[in-house]
Write a structure and sequence with these properties.
Layout lengths: L4 E5 L6 H11 L9 E5 L2 H10 L5 E5 L16 H6 L2 E6 L2 H7 L3 H14 L2 E6 L3 H5 L3 H12 L5 H4 L3 E4 L13 H18 L2 H6 L1 E5 L7 H5 L6 E4 L6 H8 L5
Parallel strand pairs: 1-2, 1-8, 2-3, 3-4, 4-5, 5-6, 6-7, 7-8
Helix pairs in contact: 1-2, 1-12, 5-7, 7-9
The chain binds 2-phosphoglycolic acid.
2-phosphoglycolic acid binds next to strand 8.
């Protein structure tokens, strides 16, 4: 059985003070939740958010990192730095990193290997653009991103990581993929995992959907057999909506 996981990606939102305030408000609302909960604040808030959640089931993830341990890489942070700031997870290859900052699947692969070497669990994001879906290229794009972004990993490791399918056209647009569209791609990702790794990796890897997830659509997504959780942007910024998503019920 794969444990459900809900991830909040705060992107470039919330100062240190706001981050602490948020997790303090969230804590009492999620005590009966049965899923893994991960919050991903900006770098500056990692340490404070991690201290504020020490006695809880909330785990902290970074939104990116660089693959070297140290050196002349202005603006970057290393896996060890994220780990010492209290992170257990790291989001890699988010479409905003790919599109705005030129992240490639090759660099995601290097980052994933470095994250794992430091003891962090990567959450690797993949997803097609609207034009690519319209022209029937979804599987080609996802397949390419998958093979290249996971190139440095072994079947053993893939069993423990998290992948997030985030169609670019659904991020921040209010246009959620239907549960059927998401399930179809998730099932393709399981197939790709068998082909590139093995059956056990495919059975164990947790697959998240991301893109306009809200309290209103969480249950219909979680009911799908290959959807193990969600990566939430906008709706993770408000305590109430994020708590509702975490406390989802399958009806
Ligand atoms: P959204 O963002 O929930 O605001 O669509 C999701 C994401 O970018 O991870």
């Amino acid at each position: 059985m794969r444990q459900p996981v809900i991830v909040g990606n705060w992107k470039m939102h919330k100062t240190i003070r706001e981050s602490i305030h948020f997790v303090e408000q969230l804590k009492p609302l999620i005590q009966s939740a049965s899923c893994d909960i991960i919050v991903s604040p900006p770098f500056t808030s990692l340490s404070a958010a991690s201290k504020a959640t020490l006695d809880t089931q909330i785990k902290i993830g970074a939104q990116d990192l660089y693959w070297e341990n140290s050196g002349a890489f202005t603006g970057e942070i290393s896996p060890q730095m994220a780990l010492e700031a209290g992170c257990r997870y790291v989001i890699l290859g988010h479409s905003e990193r790919r599109i705005i900052f030129g992240e490639t699947s090759q660099s995601v692969s290097k980052k994933a290997a470095a994250a794992i070497a430091a003891g962090l669990i990567p959450i690797i994001c993949l997803g097609e653009k609207e034009k690519e879906r319209q022209s029937g290229k979804t599987h080609d794009v996802i397949g390419m991103q998958f093979r290249q972004s996971l190139a440095s990993l072994t079947p053993e490791i893939v069993s423990h990581i998290i992948l997030a399918y985030e169609p670019v056209w659904a991020i921040g647009t209010g246009m959620t993929a239907t549960p059927q569209i998401a399930q179809e791609v998730h099932s393709y990702l399981r197939q790709l995992t068998i082909e590139m790794f093995n059956r056990s990796a495919s059975d164990n890897v947790r697959l998240l959907y991301g893109g306009s997830v809200k309290p209103e659509n969480i249950s219909s997504l979680m009911v799908e057999k290959d959807i193990d959780g969600v990566l939430v942007g906008g709706a993770s910024l408000k305590v109430e909506s994020f708590a509702k998503i975490i406390n989802f019920e399958i009806r």
